[in-house]
Amino acid sequence: MNETVLLNDKEISKEIILSAREAIVAMGKELIERKLVAGSWGNISVKIADGVYAVTPSGRGYANQKPEDIVIVDDACKTLDGELTPSSESKLHTAIYSACSEAKAIIHTHSIYASALAAMRKPVPAIIEDIVQIIGGRVECAEYALPGTQKLADNAVKAMNGRKGVLLANHGAVCWGKDLADALMVCEILEKAAQIAIICQSCGGAVELSNEDAEIMHSFYKEHYIKRQRGEEK
Predict the structure, then answer these.
(1) Domain of 119: which CATH number?
(2) pTM beyond 0.90, yes or no
């Protein structure tokens, strides 16, 4: 019999909670391996249920993280389960979940090229087809705000404007997906596009795709290509 626990007035399976915690721990190690974060910087979360999220703890390195270190919080970033302090960027995560109903997982990275553009307070332009298809077009840079503040969260949601990624000025990047694997793919595509943009700037600049072409490619990706990847469409 599957045991449940009452969190935020919701009966949630302990197995689901453990699975989310284990997935976040595994993803933390993956982010280090892929050089998208270092040490304890950046953060990861998974939506367990409406108003219930698993999030990495504050100041704890990914290399030695354990499932029990992952904190369960509510929309107000109040701890529902766990002994450690939740990430200082929990407000950023809950704000994105509230604004993007499709978001089920969020990864905040400090990857080199995305962070370089964030330090210049420049967007990642829509110059490569995969960033357009997956993220929806150019990725904007949110207005600067101090880390861990509600202002940072609000600025990020505003600049994200429904897309799957955004740069945080002088900070890094944050991306969401339908699960952690999807969020990781968005992070990697964003970092690749940022690197290409910086290379192009050093060689005279790149030609950005039109909004019309970007919309066509993004719509095709959402309506057909994803289904083909899953074997649901020929």
Answers:
(1) 3.40.225.10
(2) yes
